[in-house]
Amino acid sequence: MSSPTPAPGTAAAPHVVEDCLGFVQLLSDGTVRRSTDYSMLRPTGRVPSDSDLPVQWKDVVYDDTHGLRLRMYRPTNAGVGKKKKLPVLVYFHGGGFCLLSFEMTSFHAGALRLATELPALVLSADYRLAPEHRLPAALDDAESVFSWLRAQATSSSAAAAGADPWLAESADFARVFVSGDSAGGNISHHVAVGHGSEGGLALAPLRLAGCVMLWPYFGGEEPTPSEAACPADQVMGPALFDQMWRLALPSGANKDHPFANPFAPGSVPLSDLGAAFPPVLVVDPDQDPLHDRVVDYVARLKAAGKAVELVVFAGQGHGFFVTEPCGEASDELIRVIRRFVHGA
What we know:
Layout: E1 16-20, E2 24-27, E3 32-34, E4 55-63, E5 68-75, E6 86-92, H1 105-117, E7 121-125, H2 137-157, H3 165-170, E8 171-181, H4 183-196, E9 208-214, H5 225-228, H6 238-248, E10 280-285, H7 291-303, E11 308-313, H8 320-323, H9 328-343
Parallel strand pairs: 6-7, 6-8, 8-9, 9-10, 10-11
Antiparallel strand pairs: 1-2, 2-3, 4-5, 5-7
C-alpha cells in the first residue's frame, strides 16, 4: 500500500527506512526509535543466577561525559587479595554495533562464568550504539575503558583516594586481556592494533597480555563462499549483518571501510605492528557465515609473524556462547579461554 499523498504545503511524515529486528528503526528524517527491552532474547537452556556462582559484581561509570558504564565481576573463592592477583578480562559485547547491553541476561551469565571459571576479574563494558552514534564512537569508547583502567592502575599503585578497591586488591595489571564477541571481537582487534601501532594506544602501567576474539564481526564488499552459502532466511546471516553495517559505518562508507574490513585501504598493515601487539586467540564457529573471513584473518596474522591461535568449533553458529551460555560448546569455550589466559 502506498503512503498517502501529503496535502499541498505540508511535509511528508517521516517513514521507516531501516528496521533492525524491531529494536532499532531509522526514520527518513534521520531520527531513531529504539527499544532497550531485550527480555525476549533469553538464552536457551540453564542460566546461572547470581546465587549459583561465587561471584560479586557491581556497575561502575567509566565515562562521565557520556554516562557509560561497565559491570565488574570478582570471584570470591579464588583467594583474591594481596597474595593472589587475578588477570583482568575486559569484555565488549556483540550486537552489530547497534544493539544489546552488558545487562542482557546472556552477557551477564557469560561474565559470571568467566569470572568464576577462569578465574579473572571481568569488566563487561557498554559503549555507544549506532545509528545514533556511528563508528568510530564504539572504538573511541573502548579506548576510554582502557584509559579509565590505566588511571585505576596508576591510582592503585599509589594507593590514591578514588581507586576502585576491587581493582586495587585483586587486579594483576600486568595481565590485562581485551576480549569480546562479534562486534566486541571487532573492537578487540582495533584495540590490539591501536596498542601495537607506533604512537598508538598507550597503556602503561597496564600490560596488554592477550586478545580474545570470539567470531569477530568483520565485513567486506566481496562476498565470501561461506556468506554466499548462507540460507537467505537465516536470521544471523549476511542480510542482517549488511543492515547493521549500513547503520553503524560512517555515512556514505561501504563494507570496505577499515572499521569493517581489517585489510581495506587505510587499515594499518599487520606487518607494521610492533612487539606491543599481543598474542591473539580467535574462536571460529564453522557454521558462522563469517567463517571464511575469520580464517583469512588468522592466516594473514600468521603470515605477518604474529602469535595467533585459531580454535574452530564444529557444528556451531555465530554467537553460540550468547544463545546458550551453559551448553556443552560453551563449557569447552571456557576451557579454551582459561588455557589461553593463564598460559599467557
